[in-house]
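Lab notebook, bench 4. We co-purified these components, and the gel suggests they stay together. Before we commit to crystallization screens, I want a quick structural picture of the whole thing.
Request: model the full complex, all chains together.
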Amino acid sequence: MTALMQPGFWVFILTMSGIYGIFTLGLQIQYGVGGILNFGHVGMMALSSYTMAILIISHGINFWIAAAIGVAVAALGGALLGLTTLRLRRDYFAIASIAFSEIVRYVIYNSDGLTGGVQGSLAIPVTGENYPSYTDTWDSIINRARDILTPIFGEIVDRDFVMAIIVWTTLGILLLIVSRVERTSWARVLRATREDDEVPAALGKNVFRFRFQAVIIGSVIGGIAGIFWGLQSSLLSPDDFLTLVTFYGWMILILAGATKVKGLPIAAIFFGFLYGGSRFFTFWPFSMLDASERAYVRIMIIGIVLIILMMSRPQGIFGKRQEMVLE
Amino acid sequence: MNNLILEVNDVAVSFGGVRAVNGATLDVEVGSVTSVIGPNGAGKTTLFNLISGAIRPDSGTILFEGLEIQNLFPHKIADRGIIRTFQGAKVIKRLSVLDNLMLGGQNNPGDSLVNFFNPKARKAYEVQCHDRAMELLQQIGLERFAHEYAGILSGGQRKLLDLARALMANPILLLLDEPFAGINPTLVEKLLEVLHALRTKHNLTFLLIEHNLETVMNISDRVIVMAEGRVIADGKPNSIYENQAVIDAYLGTRKAFK
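Here is the predicted assembly.
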């Protein structure tokens, strides 16, 4: 119980929630607006974070440029996924997209000379003066921000605190941009394609173009989440990018109500606290179980909460019921 | 230069072993109202799907304003000015009625993501598009449903919406698949007025599938009769009644018809 009392723990949860929130925002525009079932979203996060790490460690490239290229590579990954499989029917696309993220993960796993393979980013080959860390520039940025923020917030300001503020500011900006995008006629067409291909096509809309663009935008946002993921954990492993992570994103999306962005931050925090907080469910009745058993109880609780929520509010916390169930 | 807006030449398409359209040849004159009639399974809707690009023919050509269109994507064909409605009406149920209509707006700068950074152009178009949509909604009597989801509309109302949405797209040639089935008689009258006004004002051309013979005979300049994937008769409405092939395939004996 003591860990639950420490603000540092909750700040950490907040940071992870924010990163998951950004990650899920990419799914929101794809599924909530475009009806695209992307189960390979974690692949974009893997692409951006690994690209950034490799460029910095192996090639000594400037952090900002490396991060930008990382996001660009995630976008390219989205383009590749879209061009090869987006013409498939919705459910088949979902299957193909899982395959995509698994391919990315297995390539990372097996490309020792490039990615460090199973040993993760610590084993990324080093050239010249470099050493296997990609967070130096970021750390100095964080430290400078700490010096500025400490007089305002006091002792609570640590690395995670600064990180939380940066992540949530980014999420806020992205939410603002995406919610604006979702009010354009572009989004109206994309919403139409969610339900039907023939009608928009018969009105002169290139359905594939709209879907493809939605996948790219979602991938860029997923890529941004990947950069933060990498910076937060300061070391990468192929096992960070299991398909399970994609489904955590889907949980948040379903909780929030897929069709609207406004529920997303709350759902992300809810998920983060449930996921991270339940790690410390050491009190009765959980005290009857040992630590390894509790790890599964945690996942079960998340599942149960989701089921209850879906039964009582299928539209999520903020979604519109009609937009989910209307036939 | 002839005054044919649409020429369908010996078009055929099969689904599995079934030749749904089997060498259909027909043409449509500029500014005319041409009706396609025929028994169920004659290939009428398939013909529409071929013209609108929803399916591609196995053989034959389709010319619109003198240019081949049979290999174009549906959205490219719509861009040229051929707009269709759907049998049984298709609306986007989880979009508002107004949004359904505004979806029909052509060359909308807001459809392009680049113009996200050009809100002036986007908004100017949206305002104009919105006004036109409201005007159409008023004409079909659905203005009070403007902000409701289209999924709550009845079958007949969906038909009206489908038709109005097609009009939003500024068509040159309008393909209407059973536009009047399931719509009450007074509204049919009103719709015919709207369509007639459009025809005289914008020189719109209509190609429609319809089963109500009275309506067909009243409004059509020309009637094309299809059966088993082919055109079996083609002529002025009156001549169709006299055609023995049509009587056998579609109308039945005169006694039964009268």
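Strands of chain B lie at 4-15, 18-29, 33-37, 59-64, 67-68, 82-84, 173-177, 205-209, 222-227, 230-235. Worth comparing against the SEC data before the next meeting. Residues 10 and 87 of chain B are 24 Å apart (CA to CA).
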